[in-house]
Here is the input.
Amino acid sequence: MAAFALVTENFKFLSLFFKSKDVMIFNGLIALGTVASQTAYNIFAFNCPCSSGRNYRYGLATIGVPALAFFLVGIIMNKSTWDLVSECRLRKCRKLSGAAAFALLGTIIGRAVVAPLTWAVISLLQGQAYTCALSEFVDTSSLEGFPSDQKSEVMAKFPCQGSVPVELQSFWAEIERQLQYESQLIGWLLVAGMSLMVFLLLCLKRCFSPLGYLQEDYWSQYRSIEKTLFEHTATVHARLLAAENIKSFFGFVALEKEEMEQLAVHQSASPISKTDWNRVTGVYLYREMNGLPLYSRLNKWATYNLQHNVEAMDKEMDVLS
Here is the structure.
């Protein structure tokens, strides 16, 4: 039972990744954008050096460097990354078990690898980078009638047909076909592997999720709405607080009509303490209090605040509260 509870705990992280339809749509847009970038690059920028030694490095760089850049951007743009950083900075990761941290990192990486894998797959299916990189390593013994004395320097020139001796140009179609076959085979195997992994993770998530499908869907909606309202309210709060400070300094403040209406409705905005900001910042996992769900750190803070017992929130030692 303890093992089952641990697995269930860790798979809550997977639900954060797979339960949101917005995440799937976002990942789809990332993939489409990556495909467009890859196509544009191949049309306007790809230029194989056709030189022994350089082909291999250029081909690998064409696939690997953009993939690495996409991966790092995905890590940086993922809110969970900074939630994890804040959790470790504010609470020294005391409430973060090793297994849970590993699972959370898995969800962050899972989001970040969408664009890199899409770039790699499209590169392999198109075959230009692979053909450039591996042309000098083609086994010439598999080419009927090909002179056996030709070295890798000559083979490296094949992607640039004008640089190949006339008597060897007729072999290019067969060489290109062989390299395209290898490249596309690797690409489709990568697609199959990714699809199988996503399928297995979805199945595991459904098996070990502590929530029913409807409640997961509600949780997803809640988090999305809370995020939207929080950002909008924070903008209004910051505007009102800035307006009060500017009015205190100048004696008046120049506001647009909408801003004046907001000021008339809300009157004033009080600064929020650093302690309260820290309490609603960081990693959060689904929790319940007296049988009632707590869907976010803000939800949890509000619940304890209504009970005038916010300090108890800081004293909790359950994993990833």
Q: What stands out?
A: Confidence is low (pLDDT under 50) at residues 1-21, 317-321. The beta strands are 287-289, 292-294. Residues 213-250 form the longest helix (38 residues).
